[in-house]
Amino acid sequence: MSCLDAFAGSGALGFEAASRNARRVVMLEADRITVAYLKNTRDLLDAGQVEIVRAEALQWMQHCQERFDLILLDPPFSSGLMEQALPMAREMLGPEAWLYVEQAAPIEAPEGFIIHREGKAGMSHFALLKRT
Questions:
Q1: Which domains does the chain have, with CATH numbers?
Q2: Is the pLDDT confidence value at 53 over 90?
Q3: Number of other CB atoms surrounding residue 65 within 10 Å
Q4: What is the distance between the alpha carbons of residues 3 and 99, in angstroms, rounded to a whole number?
Q5: Residue 64: closest CA among 31, 40, 90
Q6: pTM: predicted TM-score of the whole model, two decimal places
Q7: Where does the pLDDT of residue 93 fall: very low under 50, low under 70, confident under 90, or very high at 90 and above?
Q8: 9 neighbors 33 (Cβ within 8 angstroms)
Q9: Exposed, middle or buried, 62 (CB in 10 Å: 0-12/13-18/19+)?
């Protein structure tokens, strides 16, 4: 499975995908200090399938021609980035792909997706969506 962690932050979601045998994980992060942290963590975990890219997620996604089997979207909650990232993610998903979203508000499946699994942890609502 190829995976995109569009707003990597701590890298928890992307490294979890790597630990579950994703063949490739692309992590996007704009902050240079966080990128250094992610690279250090990748090296400590010997997670060679993880590619860390210093980039603004929306700009990178807008120009990406790749297709992914799983896209992880967990932008900062108050940023408004989810609304912009969802349509881009839809275009980057393969036909049998999955989309994981995490946000402050309850999640409704976008058109063309069904909620496979959902939950809430503290203030976070999360869902694993499957393309229909």
A1: 2-131 (3.40.50.150)
A2: yes
A3: 6
A4: 10
A5: 90
A6: 0.94
A7: very high
A8: no
A9: exposed
